[in-house]
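Human:
Focus on the backbone:
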Amino acid sequence: MAATSPASRLVTEAARRHLRPLGLRQRGRSRLWLDDHGWWLGVVDFFSPRWSQGSGLTVGVMWLWQDVGHVTFNVHEKVEGSQEFRHEQQFAAVMERLAHDAEKRVGKFRDRFADLDAVARALLSRPVRRDDLWGNFNAGVAAALVGKASEARERFSAVLAHDSFADWIQESQQTAQYLFDASEDPAAVRAWARDAVVSCRAKLSLGDVPASAGDLPA
């Protein structure tokens, strides 16, 4: 097993101080920390520069109803670009600042996306962009889940109008068509979303939906 670099060790130590008390979990031995809300994840990435030691910081959110097998950002803020590791004392101070900033931003995302109604308001506040397939898809799902059928159909129509140049786009459009047709039946959309969330959690090895998830119980 490769030895942990001084930079990665300091990243982990700072994250443990600031993020563990909030309930976030480190993903394996990586620099990703996850804030698990059942049907969505808060994601903190202390990303590493490609050619040197160091760290940057991106904080965001992933909607698990997308049912993909990798952690991704659907909403994110790149807080700071790569900060180089020069020596341990210097980088420990860098990481203390980044981890503290991550802690604050996790709290802001928790407040912003406190429940499905808040998620729908936030996602629907963004204008429809024909080139934003996942933005339209996720806004449509959130709208359908809270009973906003006309808004959901508008977003799903934008997904269906997207150029189908790849298999994954065609698959997302098939799902969008189903949800377009089911948009006036929130129970059907909710059942679909529960199944998608459970599947995504299995792919990401997240375990069962926590009892605290609330809006989308398994």
About this structure: The radius of gyration is 19 Å. The chain has seven helices and five strands.
